[in-house]
Each structure stands twice: as C-alpha cells, then as structure tokens.
Amino acid sequence: MSERNVVSWTLMVCGAIQCEEVEQGLEVFLEMRRNGFVPNEFGLGSVMKACGNRGEGREFGLCVHCFALKIGTERNPFVGCSVLTFYAKLGDIGAAERVFESLEEVDVGCWNAMIGGYAHCGYGFEAIGTVSLMRRKGIFMDKYTFINVIQGCSLLGDLNFGRRIHGLIIRGELEFSAPVMNALMDMYFKNGGINSGLVVFKKMHDRDVVTWNTVFGSFSQHEDPKDIASLFHSFLLTSMRPNRITFSILFRECGKLLNLDLGLQFCCLALHFGLFDEANITSALINMFSRCGKMEMAYLVFKSKVSENVIIWNELISGYKLNCCDAEALKTFYDLLQLGVEANEYTFSNVLETCSRSENQLMSRLIHGVAFKSGFASHGHVCSSLIKGYIKFGRLDDSLKVFNMLDRPDMAAWGTMISAFVHQGFYCEAIRSLNLLIEAGEKPDEFILGSILSSCAGTVAYCQTKSVHSLIIKLGFEGHVFVASAVLDAYAKCGDIQSAKMAFNQSCKSNDVVIYNAMIIAYAHHGRVVEALDTYDKMKLANLQPSQATFVSVIAACGHIGHVEKGCHLFKSMNLYGMEPSPDIYGCLVDMLSRNGYLEDAKQIIETLPYPAAFKTFSAYEATGQAIIYYLLMAGFLLALWYSGFYIGM
User: Fold this and answer.
1) Number of Cβ within a 10 Å radius of residue 20
2) How is 311-364 classified by DSSP, letter by letter?
3) 90, containing H or E segment
4) How much is the average pLDDT of 381-404?
5) Where are the PPR repeats (predicted)?
6) Which of 96, 162, 449, 527 could in theory staple to 153 by disulfide, Cβ–Cβ 3.0 to 4.6 A?
7) What integer pLDDT is reported at residue 97 of this predicted model?
8) At what angle do helices 513-525 and 548-561 cross, to 10 degrees?
9) How many angstroms separate the CA atoms of 518 and 549, rounded?
10) How many C-beta atoms surround the C-beta of residue 461 within 10 A?
C-alpha cells in the first residue's frame, strides 16, 4: 500500500491474530508503533486478547495495558473487556476486578468477561454472585453469560442453581444454541447428574462434534462397556467424523475405567481415521496405559513419538508417578533436561511430588533450584508441590517461605497449605492460616473449610468448631456434603453430640450416604448405639445404599450392646447390595462375636478368612484349651491394620 493508515494497520494486526499467527500479529503491532501510528481500541483489544492466550505474553500484555492507560483508552468497553480477560487468564483476578470497576460503560460483554474470569480462576461462588447482580440490574443475559455461569455452577457443584439456570435457558429460548446446551450437559455430567445430562443430550436439536465429545467425557460414569460401544456406534452413524479431541477423550475415559480392551479397539479406529500421529492422541494413549498399569506399553508409545512436546514428557512422568515408579520418573525428568526440552510448571510439580512421596529431600531441593533458575518457582502448581513436600519433610519454615513467594496466593495455594498442615498434624498452623486468609480479604472455599474442621476435630477445639460453623453458614456452604459431614464429625469429636445431631438434621435433606455414615459413626463413638441403628433404618427408608463404612459402624455398634443376631443379619444383608465384606467388616464381626461369648462362631469366621497359611503356625495349640484365643489373637493382628477396635475384643 502506498498510504497506510490506522485502519489498515489494525486490519493487519487483527487478521494475523485471528489466523492464529500471533507472533506475526504482535510484530505488525510493534512496526505500527515504530511508524508513529497510535492504535485504536480494536487494535489494542485484539493484542491484549492474544497476550492472554499466550503463557509467555504476560510482559508484552502489561506493556500494552500501560500504553492504553497513557493514551486514555483503558476505559473503553472493548479495551477494558480485553484487559480484564488478559488478567483473568493470568490468574490475577484482583487486577481483573479493578479493571472492571474502573470501566465507565459496562455492557453485557464486560459482564460476561468478568463472570468468565471468575469461572476461569475457579471462583464459582463469585461467578454466580455476579450473574445475580447482573439480573438485579436488569441487564440482558446472552448465550455467553449462560455458558460462563454454567461453568461457575459446575465449579461449585451447585446442581440446584444449575437447574434454575436451565429453566432460564428454556425461558430465553436458547435450547437451540449448541454451545449453551453443551456447557449445560457438561455441568450435569461433572457433578453426578448423568441422567439429567443425557436428557439434555436427547432433547438437543443441533448436535455437533463438541456435543458428542462432551457425552464421551462422561464414559467413566458408565459401568457397562457395551453401553459405551453402543453410544460411539450411534455417533459413527451420523455424518460427523471423530476428531483428535474425540479419541483423546476416549482413551482417557478408558483409562479411568481401567478397560484396556475397549481402549485398544479405539486405537484401531484412531489409526483408521489417520489421527494416530497427533500429539494429544499420544499423550492420551500414555495416560490410558499408565492408568491400566501397563507402563511398558506407555513407554513404547512414548519412544515411538519422541518429540520436544513437553506435554508428552509430562504424561510419561505422571504415569511413572501414578505407578510408584519414582526412579523412572526422575530419570525421565533428567533425560528431558539433557535433550533440551523446556520443562513447564506441570513437569516440576510432578517430579517434586515424586520426591516428596519417596522422601528424597536432597533431590527435592535440587529440583527446587532448577525450577527457580527456570523461572517456575513462583508458579501456582510448583509452589503447591513444594509446600506439600516441605511440610512432609517437617520443614515448616521452608514451606512458609515458598508460600510467601506468591504475589497473591489463589484459593488453590491456600488450600494446599492448609490441607498439608492438617494431613501432617499441624492443626494449630492450619487454623492460623485460615485467619490469615480471611485477613487477606479472601473467602475460603468448601474444601478449605472441610480441612479446617478436620483440624478442629483433631485438636478437640470446640470454640473454633463453632466459629468455623458460623462462617460456613454465612458463606452458604452448609448444604455441601463434604462440609456438612466435616461439621458433624467435628462436633462429635468435641463431645457435643447434640450439635452434631442438629447439623445432621439440617443437612440430611441432601439425601447423601456420606452424611448418614458420619452420623452413625458419631453415635457409635458416643455409645449411642440405639440412635446409630435408628439412623441406619432412616437411611434405608431414604432409599440410600449403605457403603462398607456403614456396615463397619452398625456391626460394631451391635457388638457393643450385645445385639449379635441383629449384627449377623446386617452382615448377611450385604449380599442384597452386591457387596463383598472387606477385612475391617470381618474384624467387626469377629469382635462382636468374641465380645459376647460366641467364640466357636468367631473361630469359624476366622478359618474362612483368606489367610489360611498364616494360621498353620498356631496348629500346635490345638491340643490345648487355648486354641480359640490364639486364633483370635492372630486375626486381631491381621485385621487391626484396618480396624483398631478389634484389639478391644481381645
């Protein structure tokens, strides 16, 4: 062009970025500035979005934001929306909030960007709250609003609010929008509402490959491989072809199901469609073989596709970690460095967790040094792994130093710190961390609150339990199963069974077996055996299937009050639920029989246990009158690994 103006430069910048030629687009933007042209809001907005999509675009994006501030366009809705999205994708939700509040005109696009930012950073509660505020202001919700708020519901596991959003989608006549319905279906699948998700799928008018991929992503919730094969066959009968994402999902789901045979059949299909050479297919195959315990096959796939793609290396290291092959994981990391492949934060996170599990403190420190040199020591995942490792090694000071390296710890970092304190028995430090979190202006999520309640139970801290319970009610988490069961358990361990009962009555509306189990255990520990058995009966009336933990509690309770017949009936009723007794249930049964003088019956149970060779040592005692006691003693040592109460019976 003989004469270039701002419009022509902007078209070149935006065109390159839209064609995913980001490097070229940024270079054209710099050339535009060198020629003295001032970019308009469309050019600035496009560049900011491009920087947000690139992990290494942080510094460039910050410079562009400063330039927007300098020329006074930062409050333009288009530029502001792009800047907001940029910070959200970097995980700096505080900066995104400040940008949102500074905008003079906030249109629906800005609201969507803020809601999407919350969802992207894992702040589901804030995403839902922002949508509620948006509705109160009478702002029209478009399909992008619904997609973002559905992601927020999915993060929180709030199916009730999700169903209300589903109702609004129907009222807004957005059932014909495939992206909206795909997001809705994904929310149901990820939060246990598989039947609701399938209903949405069956009613969809316009299905695309993403729709089918979303359904395939729920495969691990199916139990019958025939259903999975039938669904995939239905997909093949349509005019659509599976893509690399389809097979990547299929392989990972087969890994979750530990169904290698089905996975190998999908391998043949991927080869048939010419998708076997894709990097994410290779990564998914390694994942599937690793989950199925076939690390030799995972390594063969890796060797056949050796590349500089760090994702494939990460998958192999993760597989070795999953199968407790710590030496192989560290060797793979060493090979990665030797070949000059650039490790990322997930690489360092995996190898640091491997060092932590193998208690290799020296190697952990060396890798920390490499991460620091590579610029990843302050990244969220790396910091979380370092914190867990140092706390496991008993180095609280080092873990706090790592935590303090974070400019603004996100909820995941706080959660890692608190949960690591709880797991290692540093209960006071966990409670102190919660206070620091609140002082920093953050709102703890349900998992942090559950961990804190575990620390309250561990220290029998009654006052702290009541304070945390009040905070839970204030934040609206009392209906969350994980939190509700932790509240109940904490009160019971602090000796306040009445408060535990009140918490149970408030939360049993959720109709979850975990809540009932927690109450049964609480009653049993307090010697309220009749109440424990009554709660079990209520559980059956609620059409809930008992778990192994349920039977451990009720059989132990029967043993304490001498209801042997009832306990034996409960033991036999496990067959009705298709359950095999676990070692701890056998321990409870033998304990119950021996407590109440049924020694011969206890002996018969022990002789049917899968430990026949272990008891041959004691055959010499058969001639004496103490044979049964020795049988019980041996069974006690074997079963007490799972059920410490068995020692009481002896």
Assistant:
1) 11
2) HHHHHHHHHHHHTT-HHHHHHHHHHHHHTT----HHHHHHHHHHHHHTT-HHHH
3) none
4) 87
5) 5-39, 107-141, 410-444, 512-546, 547-581
6) 162
7) 87
8) 20
9) 9
10) 21
